[in-house]
Amino acid sequence: MRVFLTGATGFVGKEVLKELLTAGHQVVCLVRPQSYRKLMDVKGDVEVCKGTIFHLPAIEKGMKNCQAVIHLVGIIRPFYWRGITYQKYHILGTQNIITAAIRNRIRRFILMSALGVEKKPLTPYLKSKRKMEEMVIKNGFNYTIFRPSLIFGTGDQFINLFRSLMEKYLLSFVPIVGDGKYLFQPVSVVDVARAFVRSLNRATALGKIYELAGAERVSMSALIDRIACSTGNKKKFKLHIPVWMTYPTAQLLHQFPWFPVSPEQIKMLTGGNVAQNWQKTVRDLDLQLLSIYKYLEESGSENEAKTMVFNVRKPVRSKVF
Ligand SMILES: NC(=O)c1ccc[n+]([C@@H]2O[C@H](COP(=O)([O-])OP(=O)(O)OC[C@H]3O[C@@H](n4cnc5c(N)ncnc54)[C@H](OP(=O)(O)O)[C@@H]3O)[C@@H](O)[C@H]2O)c1
Fold it and tell me: 89 CA distance to ligand 1 centroid (A)?
């Protein structure tokens, strides 16, 4: 199948691209001109469509002869002074992808959403993800929507942040927002990519909204202990910062990219993030979820692969919906 992919140079996108090529699909990647070099080493049936999600003519041209769209581009945190907002990246950007898909008569649309979009009240991030879902559904595509929990794997921003605090900065303590008892269900980026690619030509996945979550529910405190063990350290002292204390600092500093969290992220983090129906996704798409514990045991930040390794098969015929 010829697939139009957005966000291919990102953390999740790299893995989705690898999985698409491994499954024998042809891929057209929408890539920002300044990020073109990130795909230079990729071997396989890949074409690059230079442009951004705001360049409708480029997207429309790039989608020619594609049979499916996988739309991953998203932001987790807005930077208003740089014009990076949810309205622009999630709503306007998605509208452009939808418009180009409609003009190219593409029926199959796979969307990256996020776990928690059914919660009330919604944070601005989740509200915009919810709106993206509604836009795709409303336009009559043969859609599959994925709502992943926190995603871990090579190059993730979350586990690597704590790893570098422990390894690079040699901190003898780890700051934790709140009591650390809030739960996550982190899912491997490899499982996320497999789910996206397997859903492409499975009739069971049509019109479905799938939660994607890992095999274990872990508390923030337990996760920190495991990360510490994986870096060869003993348990670290955890410095619990009361949630109410973190808000004003985050409010003041979150527009600086070096500051690790925004008030909205603190809210989402401490509110927990676990799935209810992830087993259906596992069944429908034959996933074998990778354990976060196993991943942490087997990977250290220094031995994480820095390059993209591809195992490209010959193109296969796939069913187009
Ligand atoms: N990571 C998680 O734990 C997680 C959990 C749930 C949902 N998600 C969702 O998964 C998606 C991907 O997340 P990620 O962690 O892979 O993010 P990421 O690493 O930041 O990747 C973002 C991708 O989008 C591209 N991009 C950004 N702005 C663009 C624009 N204007 N035009 C075209 N491409 C643009 C980036 O390209 P450049 O290389 O040019 O920057 C990059 O390829 C997002 O929608 C996110 O909300 C992520």
Answer: 10
